[in-house]
Amino acid sequence: VQLVESGGGLVQAGGSLRLSCAASGITFDTYTIAWFRLVPGPEREGVSCISDRDGSTYYADSVRGRFTISSDNTKTTWYLQMNNLKPEDTAVYYCAVRDGDVHNICRSYIFGSWGTGTQVTVSS
Questions:
Q1: Following DSSP, what letter does each residue of 78-92 receive, concatenated?
Q2: Which has the closest alpha carbon to 27: 54, 49, 1?
Q3: Are 21 and 15 in contact (CB under 8 A)?
């Protein structure tokens, strides 16, 4: 599995960015795509997860209503649309994939395949 993130950058508070995750080599019958971000703490914060099987989604409380996870029609590129960005959203963002559904357990330790990350910086 190869995951490549793009779309990060510098934006002012209140602005928007759309992150992309180009995925290849996924052979699971069903899988979950996730976006995490590296913030101070014991693990990467789960921002959003989406099930390939039924499209069910999870969002962290801190981003719900502002961020949206989606994919293109071929499900080879996954997106994280980030609106109304805040300085506290500043982080390196990673996409990840694992087989099966995670049933809202959007935690980094259960994901085995990761991209290399893209930096998002939100200025106040």
A1: EEEEE-S--GGG-EE
A2: 1
A3: no
